[in-house]
């Protein structure tokens, strides 16, 4: 039997990703508490000074985090977008989010194109795969582009799914580069606005 189709290995991989997701969320909570106590989350000046100390290394680290977050979707993507805006401001945060997410999306497509459909069963639940598999029957590019433009579907999974279809590199790249800005802006600026209201209420 091909090991990539082994349900035991697939379940163990999904369990490991779920564990990493829980650990990642716990780390986010810890960092949020630390940032709150340090005044980073309530003072734009303190946040700017903290980011300024990291310099280019901080930017590269954040972009790398966003790339990995797409390839290994452990945390909700919205958290990364919110972090980008809080750390670097609206314009720069959007730009760094865009670079990281687009590069990560291209990597996910490349990995799926190389490994094939069995990879989906190792990384994602059967229910999620079944829900969107019908998209590959016909007009996949149209539905994929709509899902990327409107943040209503699991983009990370769809990038992997696209890699198992006949979609060309050129078509996929154009959809990602042109479709991602609207969704990223909505997540980044929308969550930042909500966060600002929460901080104002708590302080």
Automatic annotation (TrEMBL):
Source superkingdom: Bacteria
UniProt KW Transmembrane keyword: yes
Gene Ontology cellular-component terms listed: plasma membrane
Chief site of localization: membrane
Membrane-protein topology: Multi-pass membrane protein
Keywords, alphabetical: Cell membrane, Membrane, Transmembrane, Transmembrane helix
Subcellular location: Cell membrane
Matching InterPro entries: TMEM64, VTT_dom
Membrane-crossing residue ranges in chain numbering: 15-36, 48-68, 98-120, 184-202
The VTT domain, residue ranges: 81-189
Family to which this protein belongs: Belongs to the TVP38/TMEM64 family.
Name used for this protein in its record: TVP38/TMEM64 family membrane protein
Source organism of this protein record: Oscillibacter hominis
């Amino acid at each position: 039997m091909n090991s990539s189709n082994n349900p035991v290995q697939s379940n163990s991989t999904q369990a490991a990703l779920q564990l990493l997701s829980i650990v990642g969320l716990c780390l986010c909570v810890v960092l949020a508490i630390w940032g709150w106590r340090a005044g980073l989350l309530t003072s734009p000046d303190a946040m700017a000074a903290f980011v300024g100390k990291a310099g280019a290394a901080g930017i590269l680290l954040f972009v790398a985090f966003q790339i990995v977050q797409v390839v290994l979707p452990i945390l909700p993507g919205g958290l990364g977008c919110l972090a980008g805006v809080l750390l670097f401001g609206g314009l720069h945060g959007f730009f760094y989010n865009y670079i990281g997410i687009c590069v990560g999306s291209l990597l996910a497509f490349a990995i799926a194109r190389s490994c094939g459909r069995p990879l989906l069963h190792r990384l994602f639940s059967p229910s999620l795969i079944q829900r969107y598999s019908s998209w590959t029957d016909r007009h996949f590019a149209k539905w994929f582009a709509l899902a990327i433009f409107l943040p209503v579907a699991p983009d990370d999974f769809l990038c992997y799914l696209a890699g198992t279809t006949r979609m060309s590199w050129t078509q996929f790249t154009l959809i990602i580069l042109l479709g991602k800005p609207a969704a990223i802006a909505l997540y980044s600026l929308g969550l930042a606005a909500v966060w600002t209201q929460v901080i104002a209420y708590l302080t």
